[in-house]
Phosphate acyltransferase (Desulfuribacillus stibiiarsenatis), 668 residues
Amino acid sequence: MRIAIDAMGGDHAPKEIVYGTIESAQKNPHITFIVVGQENKIREYIDKDLKNVEIIHATEVIEVDEEPVKALKKKKDASMVVAAKLVKEKRADAMITAGNTGAFMASGLLTIGRLPGVVRPALAPVFPSTKGSGTLVLDVGANMDAKPEYLVQHAMLGSIYMSKMLGITTPRVGLLNIGSEPSKGNELLKAVYKMLEESNLNFIGNIEARDIMEGSCDVLVCDGFTGNILLKTAEGVASTIFNSLKREIKGSVFSKLGGLLLLPAFKRLKKGLDYREYGGAPLLGVKGACIKSHGSSDRMAIMNAINQAKMFIEKGTLDEMARELTNRSDTIEE
Amino acid sequence: MRIAIDAMGGDHAPKEIVYGTIESAQKNPHITFIVVGQENKIREYIDKDLKNVEIIHATEVIEVDEEPVKALKKKKDASMVVAAKLVKEKRADAMITAGNTGAFMASGLLTIGRLPGVVRPALAPVFPSTKGSGTLVLDVGANMDAKPEYLVQHAMLGSIYMSKMLGITTPRVGLLNIGSEPSKGNELLKAVYKMLEESNLNFIGNIEARDIMEGSCDVLVCDGFTGNILLKTAEGVASTIFNSLKREIKGSVFSKLGGLLLLPAFKRLKKGLDYREYGGAPLLGVKGACIKSHGSSDRMAIMNAINQAKMFIEKGTLDEMARELTNRSDTIEE
């Protein structure tokens, strides 16, 4: 197994990315790690000579605020692009990056390419839930102009992912909507509802946004615009609450003491609610295990993403997806 | 001034609704309050004989889980419908309810009717923000199939509301989108962006969902589907965090003590983040001051909603909206 790592993406690149990779490499001697990026910068953080770590030099870096498709076209020797090419050329089975999310999706779509039958790959983070093991939400990739067929395909890809990765036999599939009745939502959602009902998936109906974190389903399907709003709203609300809490705690001696006593509780809570703790977001529907780790990834997050990629490959997730795509008589037109 | 109150809507009806109204009536002897609902039940909570409180008997109640339009058609003598009729017939200037949101919007649209030129009235709660006095978000009313013209009209209605109610001279109008560039989003949003740029409103561009609570704009425009997802996500995340916090605090003696010391801080925080504290949500674009108070409203929330309705009327908000609608050359077709 060979895993390509974009060493230059994320707030703590390359240091934390390289450290996370080295630690994983020591634990997984049978996996080859290909660290992609500016070699001199990468070498600063490699003090051991590991047989299963290779470095591939890439001169350029895609910045977090660059326009994805333009960046991809302009920076042909960017670390992320080179990592994606390794997957494309089957010199790697997986790629991991903590860099520009849009560029990650674009390199999955344009460089690596889609599984036969897939029209829109979906970015699929796991949302934390108070019960169960989280909900895979897809697509959150800000893809515009969804068609019913895309969402149904995402439901299938998400179900296979959750069943392979978490061992859930028949993952419960929900459709994000503004009410539980089948008649709710726009024409897109009504059509998707009907198609999911008729599918062989374990479709449990519409799910309202306020119920997601209660673990009401394993796979939640939505169009890429709505998913993006959902993800960003959740991020914004959670960070506002935690920041306000911090400010409140600093307010008096009593609250400072209270904050100290509650520190372990706060840490557990923050961890439990942080979707980053649930690993990176896979890009489902492309020809490889492509994992987007959060921009603020530290070495631990990178190690998690590596484990995720490893499991993705070991479980034959991609083959299962390809098989299911072939079995389906419905062909989707772009 | 005459304000109609639906005494039968909300989790704590009629008790808290009546108590809130009575308290407001004592403070505002110049306002007449018309309490609508089952008279015997209402009388249980009225121990004083106030000259400025009238009761209008209505036999039926629209339940919170009823299908709005059906309920409206079936229950012609429902308290909410009767209250709306009072506004329609100009026997009241305002109506307040803590009942079924869908039925509230439907009775605004169907019973009271729209201001001339308005196609879709918008439900517009104020979102809390850490800076400033909150953001009016509209539409969150789960209206489907928005057109660019509707959203631009909502921006105008929202701007007038925030300028009248909060004294903000030129409210900053933002457009909810998945990125800040004008090219972001679907065709609807691109068209709205252009129209808002060309309008006389203080349009400041696209706003991402994660930045709303930072107070980046005063009026945030979105279609009713997206707004509903936004609102419900925020509700779900906040309540999950607070519930988890409660559970964590109960975990040990130390955390219990910590929780006790932090109780005032938690209360302030919860209050600051609770959009209910920012008053009820007006339904903008109908011929009256119609305020939807939260389902869990207590007497304080009802008193807040009454103050809001009072201000809405006193400031001539409706006249200003009607004037602006007439001034605009652009006519909107349904």
In short: Chain B has two domains: 1-118+285-316, 119-279. The first strand of chain B starts at residue 2 and ends at 6. Chain B touches chain A through 54 residues (CB under 8 Å). Chain B is about 45% helix and 15% strand.
